Each structure stands twice: as structure tokens, then as C-alpha cells.
Amino acid sequence: MSLVDPNGSNKVTFQSFVDFMTRETSDSDTSEQVLASFKILAADKPFILMEELRRELPPEQAEYCIARMPLYNGPDGVPGALDYTAFSTALYGESDL
Questions:
Q1: pTM to 2 decimals?
Q2: Distance from C-alpha of 18 to C-alpha of 70, rounded to nearest angstrom
Q3: Quick one: which of 22, 40, 23, 43 has its CA closest to 32?
Q4: Which residue range(s) make up the domain with 38?
Q5: Nearest to 31 by CA among 82, 96, 81, 94
Q6: Residues 13-35: tens digit of each pLDDT
Q7: Residue 39: which CATH number?
Q8: Cα separation of 15 and 69, whole Å?
């Protein structure tokens, strides 16, 4: 309650509630959510291309991903394909990338 009612009035204003929910939901991304987002950007392919990242993400985010994503090694890959699965799990400490 102290997070949404810092002055101890025992009432929660709408703005306090919105601020609390914004904080709570913005910090709750999981590797599965990030992975699902990349899968959508990649049109359900198991890899993503640099041009797809540059088209779909803000420039800084695209370049961050491109610089850190390993190459995709699957049999259905194409030259320059990036492994968004390995990247997503590495972001959350679930791999050694």
C-alpha cells in the first residue's frame, strides 16, 4: 500500500494507481515475451535479418541487437541470419552469450 499511497492517506488516487501499474508492467518482461516479439518481427522464422531489425526497431535498438546477436546456425538459415532465440535468453541470464 505504501507504494501507491506514499503519504499514508489510505486512499489511492487514479494517478498513483497508473504510476504503480506502469512501473510494475514495465519491469516484467520475460525472455519468453522478448522471444515472442522477435518471432513476430521475423514473421515466424527461427531467425531474423538485419534489414528486418532496422525496419521494425528504432535505429539505436536495431544496431544494439545487430551488434550482439549471434549468427543463426540452423539448417534453414540464410546468409546473415541472426539468432534471436540465443540473444533473448542471454538478455535474461539464461545462457552464456
A1: 0.66
A2: 38
A3: 40
A4: 31-91
A5: 94
A6: 767 667 766 666 665 567 788 88
A7: 1.10.238.10
A8: 39
